[in-house]
Amino acid sequence: MERMLEKLAAFHNRSEYVELNWAGSLEEYLGLVRERPEVVRSAYQRLYDMIVSHGTTEYMDSKKKVIRYNFFLDETNGGRDAIYGLDVPIMRIMSVFKAAAEGYGPQRRIILLHGPVGSSKSTIVRLLKRGLESYTRSPEGAIYTFGWVLPGRDGNDELQLCPMHEEPLHLFPLEWRQQALSELGLQHDAAREHLFHDLCPSCRYQFQTLMEKHQGDWMKVMQQVRVKRFIFSEQDRVGIGTFQPKDEKNQDSTELTGDINYRKIAEYGTDSDPRAFNFDGEFCVANRGMIEFIEILKLDVAFLYDLLGATQEHKIKPKKFPQTDVDEVIIGHTNEAEYKKLLANEYMEALRDRTIKFDIPYVTRVSDEQRIYAKEFGPDKVKQIHVAPHTIEVAAMWAVLTRMTQPKKHNLTLVQKMKLYDGKVLPGFTQDTVRELRKEADREAMEGISPRYVQDRMSHCLVANKGAGNVNPFIIMNELAAGLRHHSLITNEEQRGRYSELLTHVKEEYDDIVKNEVQRAISADEEAISRLCANYLENVKAYLQKEKVKNRFTGREEEPDERLMRSIEEKIDISESRKDDFRREIMNYIGALALEGRHFDFRTNARLYQALEAKLFEDSKDTIRLSSLVSDVVDRETQEKIDIVKSRLIKYFGYNEESATDVLTYVASIFARGDVKEKR
Questions:
Q1: Which of 194, 368, 499, 660 would be 85's cystine partner, CB 3.0–4.6 Å?
Q2: Do the Cβ atoms of 360 and 119 come closer than 8 Å?
Q3: DSSP bridge pairs for 24
C-alpha cells in the first residue's frame, strides 16, 4: 500500500521549484537579457505589464468608451477580491501607471487612493500585491538579482545575496555602463533610468573589496557573481513592503530604511561597515516591487523626509550610509478625514506636490453593488438558509440611494436617477441625461452607506435566523433600519431620518417588482399567450387590410375587435394616435421575417410580449382570486390555481416553497387593499 506521505508528495511540483530558483553566471544572465529585454523592466513597467497581461474588455457607458481591466475581477482567485463598478477610476489609475512605465514623470510621485471607508482602496492594493507575486512566478514576469560567492566560516563557499535584490546590470561601472547596455541592445531613455542606479552600500563594499583583491581585474570579480531568479513575496518581505503607522513612541524611521545590527559591530569594528547593517527596512525590501502605506497621511513628520526622497529622487538614506537608489511603486490610501487634515497642514505642501490623488468612490450601479454582496451571500456561499429573490437587490438599492445626490434638474426622482445609472431606459431620458447627471454631482458616492454595513446586517440576519430558514427582503430592510440607531458613522438625526426614508422608496420599488413577478407567474401560460397573440394579429391584419374577421364561435363575418386590440396596446402605452403606426410596424416585421423564410414568435418582440402578459394577467386575476389568500377559507379550485402560480414562482424566479407563499400572500394583501398598479 502506497504510503500517505509519498502520495501527498506527488502534489509538489519540483520542476517548478527548480525553475523559480534558477541560478547561473552573469554571462548566462546577459544572454537572457539579449533574448528577453523585459527582464530588466522598472517597477512600474512590471506592474503595468502584469495588469495588462490579464486582458481588457471594452464597453460603452453613456456614449463613453470604458475599458475594464480583467485583472481587477480577480478571476484567478475565484473573484474573492473582485472590484465591481469602479472601471472609470481604475482607468484613470492605469493611465498614470502607463505614463510612469514610459518614464514620463508619474514614476516620481506617490499614488494616493482616497475615498470613504469601505470603497475598495485596500482591496485594490491587495490585488496589486498579490498580482505581482503571481506574475514573478510566471515566465513572462521572471525577475533576477545577484549575490556574491564568498568563503564561509566553515571553509565552504557561500552565496550572499544582495539585500535589496538589485538588478545585476548595476554591476557594470557607471563610467562605461551606457556602452555596455548599448551592446545588449538597451538604449538609455526615461523608461530605463533605473538601470543607471548605483550599487547598494552592501554590494558596493563587496565590489570594492574584490576589485582590490583582484587588483582591478573586473572579469575576475564577476566570476564571483552568481545571478539568481527570485519571486516577490509579501510574507517573506521580498519585493513587497507594507508600512502601517503605529504609536509614535514605538516606531522610528529606521523601519523604512533599515537599522544597525549591534551584534555585528564587535565583529566588524564599526557601525558604518555595511556588513553591520540590516538593509531590511520597508523601502529596502520593496526595491524593484511596490510598497504600500496604510493610512499614509497618519505618518509622523520624521517619516516624511524618507518618503519624499524615495518618491522624487528614488533614493533613501540609511543611517550612517550615503543615499541609496531604489526603484519601486509607492502607493498609499487614506480616508476623507485624513485627507482634509493634509489640505489644512501647510507643512505637508511638499507631500501634496508629489502626490497623485485618485478618488475611489462607492458604487452607484445597483447591479454592481449586488455583485459585491453576492460574493458573500450568494447561493454557493449560503447553503443552510434560503435567501429569497430580491433580498440582496433591495439592500443594494438602499445602499446606492444613500450615496446619490438629489438631481438638480430634469424633473427626476432619486429612484429614477438610480435606475438611469444602472442602465435602465426611462421614457424621456437619454444617455446624454446620464452624463449630465454625473457631471453635476462631482462629489457623488464619496459619502453614504458603506458595503460593510450592509454585509454586517445581512450576516446578523443569517446568524440570528430571523426568518426561520428564510431571509426575505422585509427582514433585511427591517435589519438595515434597526442598525442605523447604532451606526458609529451616523452622527445626526437628520441623516438617520433621510436613510430611513430611503428605505420607504426601496419598499415601493420592491412592491412593483413582486407584483410584476406574480403577474408574470399568473400569465405564464405560453399556450394562452400564443392564442391571445394569434387573435390579436388576426384582428390587426384585418384592420389594416380593411377586411372582416370570422367569429370562430358563430361563423359570422365581423369587424375587427378594436376593443381587444386597444386593451393590449394600452398595456404598453400605445396612444390612440399611434395605434396605426404600431400595428403597421408589427405587420411589416412579420412580413420581413416571412421573406427570410422565418416565422414570427411573440417572444422575440419584448414590447408585444409584455403587453400580452399584462392583458392575460388582467383577464386571469379575477378567476384566480389571489385576494382569497388573506381569508381563512380557500376553495379547492382556487387553491389548485394558486399552487400552479406558486410552482411557477419557484421554477422561474428562484423562490422556495415558503418564500413563494410569503410573496403571494403579500401581493394578495395589496390586491385586497385595491392597491393595484399595473406594470406598464
A1: 368
A2: yes
A3: 227
Helix (H, G, I), strand (E, B) or coil at 206: helix
Distance in angstroms (rounded) separating the CA atoms of residues 271 and 601:
86
Burial tier of 201 (Cβ tally within 10 Å: 0-12, 13-18, 19+): buried
Residue in 613, 623, 615, 630 with CA at minimum distance from that of residue 666: 630
432: exposed, middle or buried (Cβ count in 10 Å: 0-12, 13-18, 19+): exposed
- How far are the Cα atoms of 68, 160, 499 from residue 151, in angstroms, in the given order? 53, 10, 71
pLDDT < 70 stretches in the chain? 1-2, 247-251, 410, 466-467, 620-635, 671-680
Long-range CB contacts (within 8 A, 24+) of 416-425? 418/366, 421/364, 421/365, 421/366, 422/365, 422/366, 422/367, 423/365, 423/367
Number of Cβ atoms within 10 Å of the Cβ of 604: 11
Cβ atoms of 200 and 166 closer than 8 Å: yes
Q: How many CB atoms are located within 10 Å of the residue 616 CB?
A: 23
Q: In 3D, which of 558, 644, 572 has the Cα closest to residue 607?
A: 572
Amino acid 249: pLDDT: 61
Q: What is the DSSP letter of 156?
A: S
Say if residues 400 and 369 touch (Cβ distance below 8 Å).
yes
Helix (H, G, I), strand (E, B) or coil at 51: helix
Query: What sign does the CA torsion over 570, 576, 577, 580 have?
Result: positive
What SS3 class is residue 633? coil
| Residues 450 and 121: beta-carbon distance below 8 Å | no
The residue among 328, 329, 325 whose CA lies nearest residue 174 is 325
End-to-end CA distance of the chain: 70
Give the global pTM: 0.86
Closest CA to 372 of 438, 443, 449, 452: 452
- Cα–Cα distance for residue pair 132/45, rounded to 1 Å: 11
Q: How far apart are CA 279 and CA 200, in angstroms?
A: 9
Give the separation between CA 103 and CA 127, rounded to whole angstroms: 23
Residue 623: what pLDDT? 53
Sheet strand arrangement including 23-24: 23-24, 225-230, 143-151, 157-161
| Residue in the block written with cell 458616492 | 445
What mean pLDDT value characterizes the chain? 89
What b/e sequence results for 157-169 when a residue is b if at least 16 CB atoms lie within 10 Å of its CB, and e otherwise?
eeeebbbbbbbbb
Specify the pairing of strand 549-550 against strand 557-558: antiparallel
What is the Cα–Cα distance from 385 to 84, expressed in whole angstroms? 26
CA distances from 152 to 26, 147, 157, 159, 220 (A): 21, 14, 5, 9, 19
The Cα angle at residue 152 between residues 146 and 158, in degrees rounded to 5? 25
Q: Compute the distance between CA of residue 280 and CA of residue 86 in angstroms, rounded to an integer.
A: 35
Each residue of 143-201: pLDDT tens digit? 999 999 998 777 788 999 999 999 999 999 999 999 999 999 998 888 999 999 999 99
563: helix, strand or coil: helix
Query: Which run of H or E residues covers position 550?
Result: strand 549-550
CA distances from 297 to 331, 333, 429 (A): 12, 8, 42
> CA 507 to CA 33: how far, in whole Å?
63
